[in-house]
Protein backbone atom coordinates (compact mmCIF):
# COMPACT_ATOMS: atom_id res chain seq x y z
CA UNK A 1 0.00 0.00 0.00
CA UNK A 2 1.34 3.43 -0.99
CA UNK A 3 0.43 6.60 0.90
CA UNK A 4 1.33 10.14 -0.10
CA UNK A 5 1.52 12.74 2.67
CA UNK A 6 1.08 16.45 1.92
CA UNK A 7 1.60 19.57 4.03
CA UNK A 8 0.39 22.80 2.44
CA UNK A 9 -2.02 24.67 4.73
CA UNK A 10 0.39 27.18 6.27
CA UNK A 11 4.11 27.25 5.51
CA UNK A 12 6.92 24.77 4.78
CA UNK A 13 4.93 22.77 2.22
CA UNK A 14 6.33 19.27 1.86
CA UNK A 15 5.56 15.77 0.66
CA UNK A 16 6.39 12.29 1.92
CA UNK A 17 5.77 8.82 0.51
CA UNK A 18 5.23 5.71 2.64
CA UNK A 19 4.96 2.13 1.39
CA UNK A 20 3.73 -0.51 3.83
CA UNK A 21 5.02 1.43 6.82
CA UNK A 22 8.42 2.32 5.34
CA UNK A 23 9.27 5.90 4.40
CA UNK A 24 10.62 5.96 0.86
CA UNK A 25 11.08 9.70 0.34
CA UNK A 26 10.37 13.08 1.92
CA UNK A 27 11.28 16.60 0.85
CA UNK A 28 10.33 20.23 1.29
CA UNK A 29 9.09 22.33 -1.60
CA UNK A 30 11.48 25.20 -0.86
CA UNK A 31 14.45 23.12 -1.99
CA UNK A 32 13.04 22.91 -5.52
CA UNK A 33 11.55 26.41 -5.90
CA UNK A 34 14.25 28.42 -4.05
CA UNK A 35 11.52 30.20 -2.06
CA UNK A 36 12.48 30.07 1.62
CA UNK A 37 9.85 28.14 3.60
CA UNK A 38 8.00 27.50 0.34
CA UNK A 39 5.50 30.29 0.91
CA UNK A 40 4.26 32.65 3.59
CA UNK A 41 1.39 31.44 5.83
CA UNK A 42 -1.35 33.62 4.36
CA UNK A 43 -4.80 32.54 3.06
CA UNK A 44 -3.91 33.57 -0.50
CA UNK A 45 -1.21 30.89 -0.75
CA UNK A 46 -3.08 27.92 0.72
CA UNK A 47 -4.01 26.47 -2.66
CA UNK A 48 -0.32 26.05 -3.60
CA UNK A 49 0.59 22.40 -3.21
CA UNK A 50 4.16 21.05 -3.07
CA UNK A 51 4.08 19.79 -6.65
CA UNK A 52 7.86 19.53 -6.98
CA UNK A 53 8.23 17.59 -3.74
CA UNK A 54 5.34 15.29 -4.75
CA UNK A 55 6.95 14.73 -8.14
CA UNK A 56 10.23 13.78 -6.44
CA UNK A 57 8.48 11.31 -4.13
CA UNK A 58 6.63 9.67 -7.03
CA UNK A 59 9.85 9.50 -9.06
CA UNK A 60 11.68 7.82 -6.17
CA UNK A 61 9.03 5.11 -6.03
CA UNK A 62 8.89 4.82 -9.82
CA UNK A 63 5.15 5.44 -9.92
CA UNK A 64 2.61 8.00 -11.09
CA UNK A 65 0.00 9.77 -9.01
CA UNK A 66 -2.90 7.51 -9.96
CA UNK A 67 -0.96 4.54 -8.53
CA UNK A 68 -1.07 6.06 -5.02
CA UNK A 69 -3.62 4.31 -2.80
CA UNK A 70 -4.12 6.98 -0.13
CA UNK A 71 -3.41 10.70 0.12
CA UNK A 72 -3.06 12.24 3.58
CA UNK A 73 -3.37 16.02 3.89
CA UNK A 74 -2.14 17.33 7.25
CA UNK A 75 -4.99 19.68 8.10
CA UNK A 76 -8.68 19.02 8.64
CA UNK A 77 -10.86 22.00 7.65
CA UNK A 78 -14.15 20.55 8.89
CA UNK A 79 -13.90 21.63 12.57
CA UNK A 80 -13.52 25.23 11.37
CA UNK A 81 -16.43 25.32 8.92
CA UNK A 82 -19.00 25.93 11.65
CA UNK A 83 -22.37 26.86 10.12
CA UNK A 84 -20.80 26.74 6.64
CA UNK A 85 -20.64 22.91 6.70
CA UNK A 86 -23.40 22.46 4.11
CA UNK A 87 -23.02 25.70 2.19
CA UNK A 88 -21.64 25.84 -1.32
CA UNK A 89 -20.31 29.38 -1.11
CA UNK A 90 -18.47 31.68 1.28
CA UNK A 91 -18.16 35.45 1.15
CA UNK A 92 -14.78 37.08 0.63
CA UNK A 93 -14.65 40.82 1.39
CA UNK A 94 -13.25 43.28 -1.10
CA UNK A 95 -12.02 45.29 1.85
CA UNK A 96 -11.38 43.41 5.10
CA UNK A 97 -11.83 46.39 7.47
CA UNK A 98 -14.56 45.77 10.00
CA UNK A 99 -15.29 42.20 8.91
CA UNK A 100 -13.91 40.27 11.89
CA UNK A 101 -16.63 38.07 13.34
CA UNK A 102 -17.64 36.93 16.79
CA UNK A 103 -18.25 33.31 17.70
CA UNK A 104 -20.06 31.27 15.08
CA UNK A 105 -23.74 30.55 15.81
CA UNK A 106 -22.99 26.86 16.40
CA UNK A 107 -20.42 27.66 19.08
CA UNK A 108 -17.35 26.98 16.92
CA UNK A 109 -14.29 29.21 16.83
CA UNK A 110 -14.59 32.62 15.24
CA UNK A 111 -13.24 33.28 11.77
CA UNK A 112 -10.87 35.94 13.02
CA UNK A 113 -9.37 36.40 9.58
CA UNK A 114 -11.87 37.77 7.03
CA UNK A 115 -10.24 35.54 4.43
CA UNK A 116 -10.78 32.34 6.41
CA UNK A 117 -13.34 31.25 3.84
CA UNK A 118 -10.71 31.43 1.11
CA UNK A 119 -8.28 29.51 3.32
CA UNK A 120 -10.75 26.70 4.02
CA UNK A 121 -12.02 26.57 0.45
CA UNK A 122 -8.49 26.04 -0.83
CA UNK A 123 -8.01 23.13 1.57
CA UNK A 124 -11.36 21.52 0.78
CA UNK A 125 -10.55 21.74 -2.92
CA UNK A 126 -6.98 20.45 -2.57
CA UNK A 127 -7.80 17.19 -4.43
CA UNK A 128 -8.86 19.25 -7.44
CA UNK A 129 -5.79 21.45 -7.21
CA UNK A 130 -3.62 18.32 -7.09
CA UNK A 131 -4.90 16.95 -10.39
CA UNK A 132 -5.49 20.26 -12.21
CA UNK A 133 -2.89 22.69 -10.90
CA UNK A 134 0.33 20.82 -11.57
CA UNK A 135 2.93 22.80 -13.57
CA UNK A 136 3.34 21.62 -17.15
CA UNK A 137 6.98 20.55 -16.73
CA UNK A 138 5.94 18.16 -13.94
CA UNK A 139 2.85 16.78 -15.63
CA UNK A 140 4.33 13.40 -16.61
CA UNK A 141 3.88 11.76 -13.21
CA UNK A 142 0.48 13.37 -12.67
CA UNK A 143 -0.93 12.26 -16.04
CA UNK A 144 -4.04 10.13 -15.85
CA UNK A 145 -5.00 11.28 -12.37
CA UNK A 146 -8.52 12.66 -12.06
CA UNK A 147 -10.83 13.22 -9.13
CA UNK A 148 -12.45 9.90 -10.02
CA UNK A 149 -9.17 7.94 -10.16
CA UNK A 150 -7.33 9.71 -7.33
CA UNK A 151 -6.46 7.57 -4.32
CA UNK A 152 -8.60 7.85 -1.21
CA UNK A 153 -8.26 11.32 0.32
CA UNK A 154 -7.82 11.83 4.07
CA UNK A 155 -7.86 15.12 5.94
CA UNK A 156 -5.70 14.45 9.01
CA UNK A 157 -5.90 16.68 12.07
CA UNK A 158 -2.82 18.91 12.08
CA UNK A 159 -1.74 18.08 15.63
CA UNK A 160 -2.39 14.38 15.08
CA UNK A 161 -0.06 14.59 12.06
CA UNK A 162 2.58 16.28 14.22
CA UNK A 163 2.14 13.66 16.96
CA UNK A 164 2.38 10.79 14.47
CA UNK A 165 5.55 12.30 12.97
CA UNK A 166 7.08 12.32 16.45
CA UNK A 167 5.99 8.88 17.64
CA UNK A 168 5.65 6.50 14.70
CA UNK A 169 9.23 6.83 13.33
CA UNK A 170 10.77 7.11 16.81
CA UNK A 171 12.86 4.39 18.52
CA UNK A 172 10.04 3.81 21.04
CA UNK A 173 6.90 1.70 20.78
CA UNK A 174 5.53 3.28 23.96
CA UNK A 175 5.98 6.97 24.75
CA UNK A 176 4.31 10.18 25.82
CA UNK A 177 4.03 12.69 22.99
CA UNK A 178 4.04 16.48 23.21
CA UNK A 179 3.15 18.73 20.28
CA UNK A 180 4.10 22.40 20.70
CA UNK A 181 2.98 24.37 17.68
CA UNK A 182 2.03 27.89 16.76
CA UNK A 183 -1.40 26.88 15.58
CA UNK A 184 -3.37 23.92 14.29
CA UNK A 185 -7.05 23.85 13.46
CA UNK A 186 -8.18 24.97 16.92
CA UNK A 187 -5.32 24.16 19.30
CA UNK A 188 -1.70 25.10 19.89
CA UNK A 189 -0.51 22.37 22.25
CA UNK A 190 -1.54 18.75 22.55
CA UNK A 191 -0.65 15.77 24.74
CA UNK A 192 -0.76 12.15 23.61
CA UNK A 193 0.10 8.64 24.70
CA UNK A 194 1.58 6.44 22.01
CA UNK A 195 1.47 2.66 22.05
CA UNK A 196 2.47 0.55 19.06
CA UNK A 197 0.97 2.38 16.10
CA UNK A 198 -1.81 4.06 18.09
CA UNK A 199 -2.08 7.50 19.65
CA UNK A 200 -4.49 8.47 22.42
CA UNK A 201 -5.27 12.16 22.88
CA UNK A 202 -4.84 13.13 26.56
CA UNK A 203 -5.46 16.85 26.39
CA UNK A 204 -5.01 20.01 24.37
CA UNK A 205 -4.67 23.76 24.80
CA UNK A 206 -7.05 25.84 22.69
CA UNK A 207 -6.14 28.89 20.66
CA UNK A 208 -5.45 31.76 21.03
CA UNK A 209 -3.22 30.60 23.90
CA UNK A 210 -0.02 29.44 22.25
CA UNK A 211 3.62 29.34 23.28
CA UNK A 212 4.50 29.16 19.61
CA UNK A 213 2.57 32.32 18.78
CA UNK A 214 4.12 34.05 21.81
CA UNK A 215 7.58 33.29 20.44
CA UNK A 216 6.45 34.38 16.96
CA UNK A 217 5.31 37.74 18.33
CA UNK A 218 8.65 38.21 20.04
CA UNK A 219 10.43 37.35 16.80
CA UNK A 220 8.53 40.10 14.97
CA UNK A 221 9.05 42.61 17.79
CA UNK A 222 12.80 42.00 17.72
CA UNK A 223 12.95 42.82 14.01
CA UNK A 224 12.98 39.32 12.51
CA UNK A 225 10.52 37.46 10.27
CA UNK A 226 7.96 35.44 12.21
CA UNK A 227 7.29 31.84 11.18
CA UNK A 228 10.86 31.86 9.89
CA UNK A 229 13.47 33.47 12.16
CA UNK A 230 12.55 32.18 15.62
CA UNK A 231 15.92 30.41 15.82
CA UNK A 232 17.60 33.83 15.69
CA UNK A 233 15.82 34.86 18.88
CA UNK A 234 17.08 31.66 20.51
CA UNK A 235 20.66 32.53 19.47
CA UNK A 236 20.25 36.14 20.57
CA UNK A 237 19.13 34.99 24.02
CA UNK A 238 22.60 33.74 24.94
CA UNK A 239 23.92 37.31 24.98
CA UNK A 240 21.28 38.69 27.34
CA UNK A 241 20.25 38.68 30.98
CA UNK A 242 16.93 37.61 32.57
CA UNK A 243 15.96 41.22 33.17
CA UNK A 244 12.34 40.83 32.09
CA UNK A 245 11.47 37.31 33.21
CA UNK A 246 8.95 38.57 35.75
CA UNK A 247 7.00 40.31 33.00
CA UNK A 248 6.80 37.20 30.83
CA UNK A 249 6.06 34.98 33.80
CA UNK A 250 3.15 37.23 34.68
CA UNK A 251 1.58 36.59 31.28
CA UNK A 252 1.40 32.81 31.59
CA UNK A 253 -0.91 30.91 33.92
CA UNK A 254 -0.52 27.12 34.15
CA UNK A 255 -3.14 24.88 35.71
CA UNK A 256 -2.68 21.35 37.01
CA UNK A 257 -4.13 19.55 33.98
CA UNK A 258 -1.60 20.72 31.42
CA UNK A 259 -3.64 23.77 30.50
CA UNK A 260 -2.22 27.25 30.27
CA UNK A 261 -3.36 30.73 29.28
CA UNK A 262 -1.31 33.64 27.96
CA UNK A 263 -2.44 37.20 28.53
CA UNK A 264 -2.24 39.62 25.58
CA UNK A 265 1.23 41.06 25.04
CA UNK A 266 1.65 44.82 25.26
CA UNK A 267 5.19 44.93 23.95
CA UNK A 268 5.51 48.49 22.72
CA UNK A 269 3.69 49.80 25.79
CA UNK A 270 6.08 47.81 28.01
CA UNK A 271 9.40 47.99 26.16
CA UNK A 272 9.03 50.81 23.64
CA UNK A 273 9.02 50.71 19.82
CA UNK A 274 9.81 47.45 18.08
CA UNK A 275 13.26 47.03 16.57
CA UNK A 276 13.34 47.72 12.85
CA UNK A 277 14.58 44.98 10.57
CA UNK A 278 18.33 45.36 10.27
CA UNK A 279 18.41 47.97 13.02
CA UNK A 280 21.05 48.03 15.74
CA UNK A 281 20.88 45.37 18.42
CA UNK A 282 20.97 46.88 21.89
CA UNK A 283 21.13 45.44 25.40
CA UNK A 284 17.35 45.57 25.75
CA UNK A 285 16.92 43.29 22.73
CA UNK A 286 19.34 40.71 24.11
CA UNK A 287 17.63 40.84 27.49
CA UNK A 288 14.13 40.48 26.03
CA UNK A 289 15.24 37.46 24.00
CA UNK A 290 16.93 35.91 27.03
CA UNK A 291 13.88 36.49 29.22
CA UNK A 292 11.31 35.02 26.83
CA UNK A 293 13.58 32.03 26.16
CA UNK A 294 13.97 31.40 29.89
CA UNK A 295 10.23 31.57 30.50
CA UNK A 296 9.53 29.27 27.55
CA UNK A 297 11.89 26.68 29.03
CA UNK A 298 10.37 27.00 32.51
CA UNK A 299 6.83 26.67 31.16
CA UNK A 300 7.45 23.63 28.99
CA UNK A 301 9.34 21.97 31.83
CA UNK A 302 6.18 22.28 33.94
CA UNK A 303 4.05 20.92 31.09
CA UNK A 304 6.16 17.80 30.60
CA UNK A 305 6.26 17.23 34.34
CA UNK A 306 2.45 17.05 34.27
CA UNK A 307 2.57 14.80 31.18
CA UNK A 308 5.01 12.44 32.89
CA UNK A 309 2.79 12.21 35.96
CA UNK A 310 -0.22 11.59 33.70
CA UNK A 311 1.39 8.82 31.63
CA UNK A 312 4.15 7.33 33.77
CA UNK A 313 6.11 6.89 30.54
CA UNK A 314 9.92 6.75 30.40
CA UNK A 315 10.10 8.16 26.88
CA UNK A 316 8.96 11.46 25.40
CA UNK A 317 8.54 12.25 21.71
CA UNK A 318 8.17 15.84 20.52
CA UNK A 319 7.14 17.73 17.39
CA UNK A 320 5.75 21.10 16.39
CA UNK A 321 7.78 24.16 15.50
CA UNK A 322 8.63 24.95 19.13
CA UNK A 323 10.34 21.54 19.38
CA UNK A 324 13.08 22.89 17.09
CA UNK A 325 14.26 25.06 20.00
CA UNK A 326 17.36 23.05 20.87
CA UNK A 327 18.19 25.10 23.97
CA UNK A 328 14.76 24.30 25.41
CA UNK A 329 15.15 20.65 24.42
CA UNK A 330 18.43 20.42 26.33
CA UNK A 331 16.82 21.81 29.47
CA UNK A 332 13.99 19.27 29.20
CA UNK A 333 16.57 16.51 28.74
CA UNK A 334 18.73 17.59 31.67
CA UNK A 335 16.08 18.71 34.18
CA UNK A 336 12.93 16.95 33.05
CA UNK A 337 11.43 13.70 34.36
CA UNK A 338 11.70 11.62 31.18
CA UNK A 339 14.59 9.20 30.73
CA UNK A 340 14.71 9.62 26.94
CA UNK A 341 13.57 12.35 24.55
CA UNK A 342 13.27 11.98 20.77
CA UNK A 343 12.45 14.97 18.58
CA UNK A 344 11.28 14.69 14.98
CA UNK A 345 14.07 16.27 12.85
CA UNK A 346 11.41 17.90 10.65
CA UNK A 347 9.50 19.05 13.73
CA UNK A 348 7.96 22.05 11.96
CA UNK A 349 5.03 21.90 9.60
CA UNK A 350 7.03 20.10 6.90
CA UNK A 351 7.12 17.05 9.15
CA UNK A 352 3.32 16.81 9.19
CA UNK A 353 3.47 15.45 5.63
CA UNK A 354 5.47 12.53 7.01
CA UNK A 355 3.26 12.14 10.06
CA UNK A 356 0.00 12.23 8.11
CA UNK A 357 1.27 9.60 5.67
CA UNK A 358 2.53 7.28 8.41
CA UNK A 359 -0.70 7.66 10.40
CA UNK A 360 -2.99 6.86 7.47
CA UNK A 361 -0.73 3.97 6.42
CA UNK A 362 -0.87 2.42 9.91
CA UNK A 363 -4.62 2.87 10.24
CA UNK A 364 -5.49 1.58 6.80
CA UNK A 365 -3.26 -1.49 7.10
CA UNK A 366 -4.52 -1.99 10.68
CA UNK A 367 -1.17 -3.21 11.97
CA UNK A 368 0.45 -2.57 15.31
CA UNK A 369 3.99 -3.64 14.40
CA UNK A 370 6.68 -1.19 13.30
CA UNK A 371 8.68 -1.65 10.13
CA UNK A 372 10.56 1.67 10.12
CA UNK A 373 12.72 3.73 12.45
CA UNK A 374 14.03 7.15 11.46
CA UNK A 375 17.74 6.68 12.09
CA UNK A 376 18.66 9.40 9.58
CA UNK A 377 16.97 12.20 7.65
CA UNK A 378 18.56 11.62 4.21
CA UNK A 379 15.20 11.18 2.48
CA UNK A 380 15.57 13.73 -0.32
CA UNK A 381 17.06 13.74 -3.83
CA UNK A 382 20.42 12.07 -4.34
CA UNK A 383 22.73 11.99 -7.33
CA UNK A 384 25.18 9.33 -8.47
CA UNK A 385 28.70 10.18 -9.60
CA UNK A 386 27.85 9.66 -13.27
CA UNK A 387 24.97 12.17 -13.05
CA UNK A 388 27.19 14.69 -11.30
CA UNK A 389 30.04 14.31 -13.77
CA UNK A 390 27.72 14.67 -16.78
CA UNK A 391 26.49 17.96 -15.34
CA UNK A 392 30.03 19.22 -14.63
CA UNK A 393 31.14 18.32 -18.17
CA UNK A 394 28.06 19.89 -19.73
CA UNK A 395 28.68 23.06 -17.71
CA UNK A 396 32.33 23.15 -18.89
CA UNK A 397 33.52 23.45 -15.31
CA UNK A 398 37.06 22.54 -14.21
CA UNK A 399 37.05 19.70 -11.72
CA UNK A 400 39.12 16.77 -10.56
CA UNK A 401 38.15 13.29 -9.42
CA UNK A 402 39.41 12.44 -5.96
CA UNK A 403 41.07 9.08 -5.40
CA UNK A 404 40.31 9.12 -1.68
CA UNK A 405 37.65 11.69 -0.79
CA UNK A 406 38.04 11.44 2.97
CA UNK A 407 41.84 11.67 3.03
CA UNK A 408 42.19 14.46 0.49
CA UNK A 409 39.35 16.59 1.82
CA UNK A 410 40.48 16.14 5.43
CA UNK A 411 43.92 17.43 4.44
CA UNK A 412 42.29 20.41 2.74
CA UNK A 413 40.17 21.21 5.81
CA UNK A 414 43.15 20.81 8.15
CA UNK A 415 44.87 23.54 6.14
CA UNK A 416 42.10 25.96 7.14
CA UNK A 417 39.81 25.88 4.10
CA UNK A 418 36.01 26.08 3.94
CA UNK A 419 34.19 23.74 1.60
CA UNK A 420 30.75 22.98 0.26
CA UNK A 421 29.95 19.30 0.91
CA UNK A 422 27.34 17.65 -1.33
CA UNK A 423 26.80 13.93 -0.75
CA UNK A 424 24.00 11.29 -0.76
CA UNK A 425 20.31 12.07 -0.13
CA UNK A 426 19.29 15.60 0.85
CA UNK A 427 18.14 16.06 4.44
CA UNK A 428 14.44 16.29 5.35
CA UNK A 429 13.91 19.12 7.82
CA UNK A 430 15.65 22.45 8.42
CA UNK A 431 19.03 21.13 9.59
CA UNK A 432 21.97 20.37 7.31
CA UNK A 433 23.29 17.05 8.57
CA UNK A 434 26.21 16.24 6.31
CA UNK A 435 24.51 15.80 2.96
CA UNK A 436 24.15 19.48 1.98
CA UNK A 437 26.61 21.16 4.34
CA UNK A 438 29.32 23.76 4.50
CA UNK A 439 32.24 22.28 6.47
CA UNK A 440 35.23 23.94 8.10
CA UNK A 441 37.76 23.21 10.85
CA UNK A 442 36.57 24.19 14.36
CA UNK A 443 39.61 26.42 14.83
CA UNK A 444 40.70 29.18 15.12
CA UNK A 445 37.96 31.06 17.01
CA UNK A 446 37.69 33.55 14.14
CA UNK A 447 36.31 30.80 11.91
CA UNK A 448 32.81 31.45 13.32
CA UNK A 449 32.91 35.07 12.17
CA UNK A 450 34.35 34.10 8.79
CA UNK A 451 31.50 31.66 8.20
CA UNK A 452 28.89 34.24 9.19
CA UNK A 453 30.50 36.67 6.77
CA UNK A 454 30.58 34.03 4.04
CA UNK A 455 26.86 33.37 4.52
CA UNK A 456 26.07 37.07 4.97
CA UNK A 457 24.30 36.50 8.27
CA UNK A 458 24.22 38.17 11.68
CA UNK A 459 27.39 38.24 13.76
CA UNK A 460 25.70 36.79 16.86
CA UNK A 461 24.78 33.54 15.12
CA UNK A 462 26.76 30.49 16.36
CA UNK A 463 28.02 27.67 14.17
CA UNK A 464 27.50 24.06 15.13
CA UNK A 465 29.85 21.08 15.46
CA UNK A 466 29.55 17.59 14.10
CA UNK A 467 31.45 14.99 16.11
CA UNK A 468 32.19 11.30 15.73
CA UNK A 469 29.64 9.58 17.94
CA UNK A 470 32.21 7.70 20.00
CA UNK A 471 34.02 10.94 20.91
CA UNK A 472 30.93 13.04 21.70
CA UNK A 473 31.17 12.64 25.47
CA UNK A 474 34.90 13.41 25.37
CA UNK A 475 34.20 16.89 24.06
CA UNK A 476 30.68 17.68 25.30
CA UNK A 477 29.07 17.29 28.73
CA UNK A 478 26.24 14.75 28.98
CA UNK A 479 26.50 14.02 25.27
CA UNK A 480 24.23 11.31 23.92
CA UNK A 481 23.49 10.04 20.44
CA UNK A 482 22.18 13.14 18.66
CA UNK A 483 22.10 12.69 14.88
CA UNK A 484 19.62 15.51 14.18
CA UNK A 485 21.30 18.51 15.87
CA UNK A 486 18.32 19.22 18.16
CA UNK A 487 20.00 19.59 21.56
CA UNK A 488 22.78 21.76 22.97
CA UNK A 489 25.53 20.56 25.30
CA UNK A 490 28.17 22.33 27.35
CA UNK A 491 31.62 22.13 25.79
CA UNK A 492 34.03 20.49 28.21
CA UNK A 493 36.34 23.13 29.67
CA UNK A 494 39.48 21.16 28.83
CA UNK A 495 38.44 20.90 25.16
CA UNK A 496 37.39 24.48 24.42
CA UNK A 497 40.84 25.43 23.16
CA UNK A 498 40.60 22.68 20.51
CA UNK A 499 37.22 23.73 19.15
CA UNK A 500 36.89 27.47 19.88
CA UNK A 501 34.87 28.30 16.76
CA UNK A 502 31.92 26.08 17.76
CA UNK A 503 31.84 27.15 21.42
CA UNK A 504 29.01 29.67 21.80
CA UNK A 505 29.23 32.68 24.10
CA UNK A 506 27.45 30.71 26.86
CA UNK A 507 29.89 27.78 26.57
CA UNK A 508 27.46 25.50 24.72
CA UNK A 509 27.30 23.93 21.28
CA UNK A 510 24.43 22.46 19.27
CA UNK A 511 25.97 19.10 18.45
CA UNK A 512 25.39 16.52 15.77
CA UNK A 513 26.78 13.05 16.35
CA UNK A 514 27.42 10.71 13.45
CA UNK A 515 28.39 7.07 13.12
CA UNK A 516 29.51 5.00 10.15
CA UNK A 517 26.07 3.46 9.65
CA UNK A 518 24.22 6.76 9.36
CA UNK A 519 26.48 8.46 6.83
CA UNK A 520 29.65 6.58 5.80
CA UNK A 521 31.25 9.37 3.74
CA UNK A 522 30.62 12.02 6.40
CA UNK A 523 31.92 9.79 9.19
CA UNK A 524 34.92 8.81 7.08
CA UNK A 525 35.82 12.46 6.60
CA UNK A 526 35.64 13.13 10.34
CA UNK A 527 37.79 10.08 11.03
CA UNK A 528 40.42 11.21 8.53
CA UNK A 529 40.35 14.74 9.96
CA UNK A 530 40.93 13.36 13.44
CA UNK A 531 43.87 11.30 12.22
CA UNK A 532 45.45 14.45 10.78
CA UNK A 533 44.62 16.94 13.55
CA UNK A 534 43.74 14.95 16.65
CA UNK A 535 40.28 16.59 16.66
CA UNK A 536 37.20 14.47 15.73
CA UNK A 537 35.06 17.59 15.23
CA UNK A 538 34.19 19.79 12.24
CA UNK A 539 32.00 22.84 11.82
CA UNK A 540 28.82 21.91 10.01
CA UNK A 541 26.49 24.64 8.77
CA UNK A 542 23.87 24.57 6.06
CA UNK A 543 24.95 24.79 2.42
CA UNK A 544 23.15 27.98 1.47
CA UNK A 545 23.62 31.73 1.51
CA UNK A 546 21.46 34.56 2.85
CA UNK A 547 17.80 34.24 1.83
CA UNK A 548 18.26 30.95 -0.01
CA UNK A 549 17.10 27.49 1.05
CA UNK A 550 19.63 24.70 1.44
CA UNK A 551 20.89 23.49 -1.94
CA UNK A 552 19.21 20.48 -3.50
CA UNK A 553 20.74 19.66 -6.90
CA UNK A 554 24.26 19.74 -8.37
CA UNK A 555 23.26 22.91 -10.23
CA UNK A 556 22.23 24.54 -6.93
CA UNK A 557 25.51 23.51 -5.33
CA UNK A 558 27.62 24.87 -8.17
CA UNK A 559 25.71 28.16 -8.30
CA UNK A 560 26.06 28.64 -4.53
CA UNK A 561 29.75 27.74 -4.70
CA UNK A 562 30.65 30.18 -7.47
CA UNK A 563 28.62 33.04 -5.96
CA UNK A 564 30.07 32.80 -2.45
CA UNK A 565 33.58 32.87 -0.94
CA UNK A 566 33.78 29.09 -0.52
CA UNK A 567 37.22 27.68 -1.28
CA UNK A 568 36.10 24.40 -2.78
CA UNK A 569 33.11 22.24 -3.56
CA UNK A 570 33.25 18.50 -2.93
CA UNK A 571 30.36 16.97 -4.83
CA UNK A 572 30.22 13.21 -4.94
CA UNK A 573 33.75 12.07 -5.78
CA UNK A 574 34.64 15.33 -7.50
CA UNK A 575 36.23 18.55 -6.32
CA UNK A 576 35.99 22.06 -7.74
CA UNK A 577 38.49 24.55 -6.33
CA UNK A 578 38.94 28.28 -6.70
CA UNK A 579 42.40 29.70 -7.28
CA UNK A 580 43.82 32.70 -5.48
CA UNK A 581 41.76 32.03 -2.37
CA UNK A 582 42.63 34.17 0.64
CA UNK A 583 42.25 31.00 2.67
CA UNK A 584 44.98 29.33 0.66
CA UNK A 585 47.31 32.18 1.62
CA UNK A 586 46.35 31.83 5.28
CA UNK A 587 46.54 28.04 5.48
CA UNK A 588 50.20 27.91 6.42
CA UNK A 589 49.65 30.31 9.34
CA UNK A 590 46.65 28.33 10.53
CA UNK A 591 48.59 25.08 10.40
CA UNK A 592 51.45 26.57 12.42
CA UNK A 593 49.13 28.09 15.05
CA UNK A 594 47.41 24.77 15.67
CA UNK A 595 50.36 22.46 15.06
CA UNK A 596 50.10 20.95 18.60
CA UNK A 597 46.66 19.62 17.72
CA UNK A 598 47.94 17.86 14.63
CA UNK A 599 50.18 15.39 16.44
UniProtKB/TrEMBL annotation:
PANTHER family the record matches: NODULATION PROTEIN U
Ranges where the Carbamoyltransferase domain occurs: 4-358
Domain Carbamoyltransferase C-terminal, residue spans: 410-578
GO molecular-function terms, A-Z: transferase activity
Pfam families membership: Carbam_trans_C (PF16861), Carbam_trans_N (PF02543)
Family: Belongs to the NodU/CmcH family.
Name assigned to this protein: Carbamoyltransferase
CDD domains documented for this protein: ASKHA_NBD_TobZ_N
Organism, scientific name: Fibrisoma montanum
Domain of life of the native organism: Bacteria
Assigned keywords, A-Z: Transferase
Stretches of the chain forming a coiled coil according to its record: none
Amino acid sequence: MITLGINAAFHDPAAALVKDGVVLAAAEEERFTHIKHGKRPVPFSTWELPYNAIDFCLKTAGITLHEVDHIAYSFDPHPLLGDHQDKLTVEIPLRPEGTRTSLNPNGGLAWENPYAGMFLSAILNAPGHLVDGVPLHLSKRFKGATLDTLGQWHFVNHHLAHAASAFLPSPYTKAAVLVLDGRGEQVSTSYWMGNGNQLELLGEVALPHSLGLLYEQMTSYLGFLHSSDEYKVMALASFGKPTYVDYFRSLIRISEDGQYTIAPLKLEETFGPARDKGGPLEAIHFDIAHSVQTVLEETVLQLITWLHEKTGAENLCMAGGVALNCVMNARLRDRGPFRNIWVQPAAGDAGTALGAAMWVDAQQRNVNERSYEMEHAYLGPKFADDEIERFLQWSKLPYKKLDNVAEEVAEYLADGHIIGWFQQGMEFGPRALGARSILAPPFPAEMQAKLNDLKDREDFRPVAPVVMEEYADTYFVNARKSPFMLFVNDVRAERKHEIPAVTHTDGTARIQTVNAGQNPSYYGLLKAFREKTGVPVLINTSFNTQGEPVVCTPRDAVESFWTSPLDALVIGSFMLEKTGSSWSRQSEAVSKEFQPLFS
